[in-house]
Amino acid sequence: MATRGFTGRRSGGNESGRIPPGQHLVDNFPVLTAGPTPHVETSDWKFTLKVGPRPIKVWNWDEFNALPMTEMRRDIHCVTSWSKIDTVWEGVLVDDILADADVKHPTDFLLAHSYDGYSTNVPLADLASGKAMVALKYEGQALPRDHGGPARLFVPHLYFWKSAKWVTGLQFTQRDEPGFWELRGYHIYGDPWREQRYTND
């Protein structure tokens, strides 16, 4: 299985050095999802941090928005071969989430969970040290539902399926457990610069 719009490898990259091989630039922001778009009200939204099955801390919308906010300007790369440069996001760094919960490094791996049942795995090393956030705004506006609002994981240096939409929590796991697309033939890590699209790439 592959997400709608998947076109496989393309030859060449971009001479600017910002576009990974097999990617092409877009001006719009394509919407690709694994299923229907859930409707999540901020009044009902909660974010849970777990170590294994054990909840460590739960934030509601107001509590989460009271955490330190950070802005990131990053290029993003979708496994379906499009790239978009200089996108601007605002949200809470994963570092600040862990600090607020007084959690440092219980394991090396995490699963991100979403309201629609989606999940994806990301190593802690790719979420910490300012590399990733739970984004609440895009281009200065509240994150649109089609793009994961009210909150999505944002891991810009990996293929964008790792930036789980409608995120509801992070869970530390003992091993690198595959998530939704990883179980369906996508790469366990997903580095755009190494074209890690499929399992054996």
Overview of the structural elements:
The chain has 201 residues and is mainly β. It has a single domain (43-194), classed as Sulfite Oxidase, Chain A, domain 2 (Alpha-Beta Complex). 6% of the residues lie in helices and 32% in strands. The protein is built from two helices and eleven strands. The strands form two sheets. Strands 1, 4, 5, 8, 9 and 10 form a six-stranded mixed β-sheet that branches. A five-stranded mixed β-sheet has the order 3-2-11-6-7. The protein is globular, with a radius of gyration of 16 Å.
Structural class comes to: mainly beta
- Briefly, what CATH class? Alpha Beta
**CATH architectural label:** Alpha-Beta Complex
The level of helicity is under 10%
CATH topology: Sulfite Oxidase, Chain A, domain 2
Tell me the domain tally: 1
Largest sheet: 6 strands, mixed
Features:
201 residues, mainly beta, Sulfite Oxidase, Chain A, domain 2, six-stranded mixed sheet, five-stranded mixed sheet
Compact overview of the structure:
By secondary structure, the protein is mainly β. The chain contains two helices and eleven strands; from the N terminus they run E-E-E-H-E-E-H-E-E-E-E-E-E. The longest helix is centred in the middle third of the chain and has 7 residues.
